[in-house]
Amino acid sequence: MGSHKDHLPTPTTQPGRDGLAAILTLPARSLIALDFDGTLAPIVPDPEKARAHPDAIPALAALAPKVASVAVITGRPAEVAVKYGGFADTPGLEHLVVLGHYGAERWDAVSGEVTAPDPHPGVAAARAALPDLLESAAPGTWIEDKGHALAVHTRRAPDPQGTFDALRAPLTDLATRNGLIVEPGRMVLELRPPGMDKGVALSDYVRELGAESVLYAGDDLGDLPAYAAVDKLRSDGTPGLLVCSGSEEVTELSEKADIVVEGPEGVVRLLQAIATQAT
Fold first, then answer.
1. How many angstroms separate the most distant Cα atoms in the chain?
2. pLDDT for the residue numbered 246
3. DSSP assignment, residue 215?
4. Which of 95, 156, 180, 232 has its CA 20 to 30 A from that of 4?
5. Rounded to an integer, what distance in angstroms lies between the CA atom of residue 213 and that of residue 22?
6. SS3 call for 35
7. Per residue in 168-184, pLDDT tens?
């Protein structure tokens, strides 16, 4: 690995600098938590074609043995993220955890098993109603059925942003009628049960692990609860580092981040640098 790859950016905030220092000084007590789509995997028009950046697995395998845990926290079903990420049966990733469906599901590399609760009944009702709603209102949209949640993608529509804006109200109505909430993302509106978010998943896992520092990297509005969880941990004395997988699409995240990198490629380079410099 050339030295240019091992360069660690300096966080722009003091809490971020403290967080990075804690991770590098005592990596064995650190949690490295990462979103999947847009963070480890480049965003693609068809979510079923999303795959982890080719250097992501080697970077994680170099870093994982040095830290307390690596957790992938995603809105996707855990098994799908494992498959698209290539996380199973990978040397070095024996203790990787995938928290799918915003933490409602969990896959542990050590067992290879997924644990999950029963789906919320409102998801089935929304699933039945969505096709008719979209057929009349939104040509070119696509439903991704996540089992515990339903995502309506507008990236393939003739006017992705216009379709996204037009769908917010009717999808919110449908969600509310069925006891669900709508989570907006990058050209996607997701209907899911309340109480499932990346912040809850991250906080619970930090507690379970007894982590003494945490890095969280994300790229989208769904990552804001995890950012808030890291802020809360920092205010309670647990150092943390917020990384944004840089995108002009979501400035809310980049404005809150300690380090902004250029997409999954930048995330991978950051992980490589931390793996190299962690003591």
1. 58
2. 84
3. E
4. 95
5. 6
6. coil
7. 999 999 999 999 999 99
